[in-house]
Amino acid sequence: MESSSRIPPSNSHEPPLGSFEVSLREIKEEQKKLAIDMKTGFDDIKKLFAAHDERFKLLDKDVRLLKHQVNNSINVASGVIQATVNDLKLSAQDVINATKVRMEEDRSLRPRVMKWSCWFSTTWINWLKKFDVNYPSPPSSP
To answer: Domain of life here (predicted)?
Structure first.
């Protein structure tokens, strides 16, 4: 009968215990390196997020400033355009009033002035229509 405390033969398929310990140590070292690399990688990602967050804040600030500048420019331009339209309306009324006064003073001018006044008024009204300005037609001749 054979003894149970017998040492396995050297041609056994089981690796020796020492090689397991070496492999386990190598795996633990690789695991430590990997953990350090991952921590470093996460720290780098945090730094990138912080840098990009700061840049996006600056970009957002610049875009808001530009938006305010554009809105201010639009408001100023609208005011200038409205003032110009008002001036043109007043100029047209001044021309019509001056023509009426002059025609009342000098009846001999009436036929020539009426032709010119009609041409001017028609041209003026058509020009104002291009800019969607509603202005009453001049009074018709008596």
So the answer is: Eukaryota
